[in-house]
């Protein structure tokens, strides 16, 4: 049993894998617009004095665009956006509507929100406990809180979470707390949010103390967001900026509220909005051409999948597009899903989805060399020479199998070392599939036709 506690996002992910990308793109666009729209209602629930204008939607979008660490992962990618931005909409809707519905509906929606994702569960539990214990809010329905805990328990203690936690890929990439903190503060958006928020809070205190102005500070949102980030840093196995969307978003709403109250209610400072819009336009002008490149690469991969299926290939070699995809800023970048190792988590999922036995990725202009040993050995105990040289080999190993990137123009392969016996040597090529399959303890191969 490997079902995940993210029941709600998993349902939508499965649904839209069948519906297709066009349907997802349409719904995802509506979701993003609704996030902005309901965020307005949430902002006005915290501070009714704010004069929210239509142009403020663009301003709020600008803040999200510049301050969310991985915008494309959170709002564009099918799996990631359903996991995070769609669940953000559920959370915002819950916060805006929960007090205005019947107790039975409160219980139902509280249970459902517990089945979203870890960051939503942490945030909403902290928020409700803060209101109940610190603010002594008596409007909170205890029954709905209990059902929220039941949903949260199902989500957190589901078998799928433990499978991911103890998966070899997760264990291999697990970071210490110190490493996670360093990576967290290495993200430029993290530092920018901290600086802007600290400046606005200090300015608010100054105006309160020195000029007796009444400035609302969204303490609840700031405190709960910071606590959520702290807990996530402790419990998460590695640093994943996309998982920080929930606390980051509410810190951005806090920044928006303070900016509106401190600056934008002054009509003489409309130029600040203009600066944001110009920066947004310049940023979009750089990102949009990149999207066209990513779209073409995606089409190329889909065409390769269809070609391999039509030729009944059971193993498929795809292009590693890391270099092309890394040309954009990390916030607006898409990432290569496949790796050299066919046993990696994403490779196995992709292979299963496309009905292949194994899938691999390699840079363009190369081939894939697969060496299968009779028994498990340490790759460092052998030397693989390409045309007599062994320089900076790109390789991976899983048990008896060794996977090596083979440059396209290589004429001779030689394997040196002691205490090993080769079971089989194979070569896979793009579009052509398996072009070499030699069984036996052969340590030298002339790719032009001779073997020794």
Based on DSSP secondary structure assignment, what is the total number of beta strands?
A: 10
Largest sheet: 5 strands, antiparallel
Question: Rg, please?
Answer: 27 Å
Mean pLDDT: 86
**N/C terminus separation:** 49 Å
Q: List the strand order in the largest sheet.
A: 5-6-3-8-9
Please trace the helix and strand order, writing H or E for each element: HHHHHHHHHHHHHHHHEHHEEEEEEEEE
Number of helical runs? 18
Structural class: alpha+beta
Percentage of β-strand residues: 5-15%
Shape: elongated
Residues in helices, as a percent range: 55-70%
Poorly predicted spans: none
Description:
With 452 residues, the protein is of the alpha+beta class. 57% of the residues lie in helices and 13% in strands. A hairpin with a 2-residue loop joins strand 5 and strand 6. Helix 8 runs antiparallel to helix 9 and helix 13 packs parallel to helix 15. The chain is elongated and about 85 Å long. The relative contact order is 0.09. The model has no long low-confidence stretch (mean pLDDT 86).
Q: Which features characterize this protein?
A:
single chain; 452 residues; alpha+beta; five-stranded antiparallel β-sheet; three-stranded antiparallel β-sheet; 10 strands; elongated
């Amino acid at each position: 049993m490997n079902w995940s506690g993210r029941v709600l996002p998993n349902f939508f992910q499965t649904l839209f894998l069948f519906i297709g990308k066009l349907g997802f793109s349409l719904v995802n666009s509506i979701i993003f617009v609704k996030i902005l729209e309901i965020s307005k209602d949430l902002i006005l629930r915290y501070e009714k004095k704010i004069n929210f204008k239509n142009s403020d939607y663009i301003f709020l979008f600008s803040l999200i665009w510049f301050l969310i660490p991985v915008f494309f992962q959170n709002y564009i990618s099918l799996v990631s956006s359903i996991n995070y931005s769609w669940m953000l909409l559920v959370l915002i809707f819950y916060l805006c509507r929960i007090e205005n519905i019947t107790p039975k509906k409160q219980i139902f929606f509280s249970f459902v929100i517990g089945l979203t994702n870890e960051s939503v569960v942490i945030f909403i539990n902290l928020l409700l406990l803060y209101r109940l214990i610190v603010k002594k809010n008596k409007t909170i329905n205890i029954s709905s809180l209990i059902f929220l805990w039941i949903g949260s328990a199902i989500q957190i203690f589901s078998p799928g979470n433990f499978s991911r936690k103890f998966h070899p890929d997760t264990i291999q990439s697990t970071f210490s707390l110190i490493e996670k903190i360093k990576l967290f503060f290495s993200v430029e958006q993290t530092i920018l949010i901290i600086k802007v928020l600290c400046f606005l809070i200090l300015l608010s205190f100054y105006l309160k103390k020195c000029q007796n102005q009444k400035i609302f500070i969204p303490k609840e949102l700031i405190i709960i967001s910071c606590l959520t980030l702290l807990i996530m840093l402790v419990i998460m196995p590695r640093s994943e900026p996309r998982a920080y969307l929930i606390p980051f978003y509410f810190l951005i709403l806090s920044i928006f509220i303070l900016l509106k109250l401190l600056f934008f209610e002054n009509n003489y400072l409309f130029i600040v909005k203009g600066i944001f819009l110009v920066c947004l336009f310049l940023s979009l002008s750089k990102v949009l051409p990149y999207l066209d490149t990513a779209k073409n690469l995606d089409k190329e991969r889909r065409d390769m999948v269809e070609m391999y299926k039509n030729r009944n290939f059971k193993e498929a070699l795809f292009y590693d597009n890391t270099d092309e995809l890394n040309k954009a800023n990390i916030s607006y970048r898409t990432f290569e899903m496949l790796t050299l190792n066919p046993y990696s988590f994403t490779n196995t999922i992709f292979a299963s989805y496309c009905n292949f036995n194994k899938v691999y990725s390699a840079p363009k202009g190369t081939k894939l060399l697969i060496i299968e040993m009779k028994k498990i050995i340490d790759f460092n105990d052998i030397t693989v020479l390409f045309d007599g040289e062994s320089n900076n080999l790109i390789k991976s190993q899983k048990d008896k199998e060794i996977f090596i990137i083979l440059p396209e123009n290589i004429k001779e392969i030689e394997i040196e070392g002691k205490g090993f016996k080769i079971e089989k040597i194979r070569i896979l090529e793009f579009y052509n599939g398996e072009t070499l399959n030699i069984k036996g303890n052969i340590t030298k191969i002339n790719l032009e036709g001779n073997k020794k």
